[in-house]
Predict the 3D structure of the following.
Amino acid sequence: MKLKDLTFRGGVAVSDNKGLTKDLLIEPAEDPSMVMIALHQHTGAPCEAVVQAGDEVKVGQVIGQSQAFVSAPVHSSVSGTVKEIVSMAIPTGLTVECVVIESDGKNTMDESIKPNGGLEDLSPEELIEIIKEAGITGMGGAGFPAHVKFSPPAEKKIDTILINGAECEPYLTADHRLMVEEPDKIVFGLKVIMKAVGVDKGVIGVEVNKPDAIKALKEASRDEENISIVPLKVKYPQGDEKRLIDVILGRQVPSGGLPMDVGAVVSNISTTRAIAEAVMDGKPLYERVVTITGQGVKNPRNLVVKVGTPFKDIIEQCGGFNEGSPGKILMGGPMMGISQYSIDVPVIKGTGGILVMTEEEAKPEPLQPCIRCGKCLEVCPVYLQPIYLSNYALKGDFDKAEALHALDCVECGACSYQCPSKRPLVESIRLAKREIIAKRNKTN
Ligand code: SF4
Ligand code: SF4
């Protein structure tokens, strides 16, 4: 297949703005003096605290647990003393229980953390259990527990594991740096997932604006017959998992369906690397690589940050704000990121980036009436009709929005980006989705 074929219908060309950090080595962040670790930072049931104020904890110790299948345990990222368990805002916009721990600065590891056997000695069931116990959730944003994703029902026959190395969101480079600096771990993590799911074909898709990552992964997988590295055209939102499946496997996930419906399981780069570390070193997911970037921060960096570290600490380690006050701060990139109203929120497992925009960049463009140009329809990768969905949402007619498949919207923002009238398309469709889901939950 030629490279020009490896893309999908719709989408937009966006300035990637990755130059600020794409060539910067991953560095460890300074140790936080205090962490606030959320007990509900994944899709599924929240955890309950298994520690209380006054307890001494170690790095990697379980501090939150749930009996529900769709959930993931939470571990301490520091050693120290639990100060309190309080409700506080996290960067997803939710207010959830958090375990506040004062670090003793020693980083004493929990004794239970030790390497597992070699991959050949571990059964698929044991691998799934290791991934579950390590609290691994999708680190690309959705936060779906990995052990659930890797345990599809028996009737869903999976034949391919896809690793999403597109990182198409502008500004973010955490995954890019991991592919360049730790390609062996990515390939090993893919082999773990292949064995856990019982699949003998693995593919890593990478946009061609990351030639160093493609080279490093090809080198790391040169002896792996069942693993291929596929260069992808640069187009947003190439990293949406359903687009990736379409582009690489030529299969379309049906409306309301999941990748497993077309025989695929997709994992993000950071998640795959966390899986490798869980199996190789027994390491739970308590830290991750975060890109701190944007014109609004003095020294953009790629840092390994402990889960629970306040955004404020990380921004300070990047030299602070470039201007007196930033225009906008997002968790994630400019297309799908979540606006933050405070920098006191803690890093969670899904924090791949912190983007600081200047006041000038964040100035909203004036809203104009729709000129019926049809550009939003042209760019929607899901073949939706953003203008109609948005109109119904703004009128509160959520039944009509549902009939037009609002729930299939992946909230990529391509329609809003392309709209010359700056209509609030993705924002209103997101609202419609929330209302439709709330209504369904009420009637179920
Ligand atoms: S309608 Fe949804 S999926 Fe389509 S372009 Fe807009 S945000 Fe993306
Ligand atoms: S792109 Fe904007 S102006 Fe054009 S049809 Fe869609 S909503 Fe209207």
The radius of gyration is 21 Å.
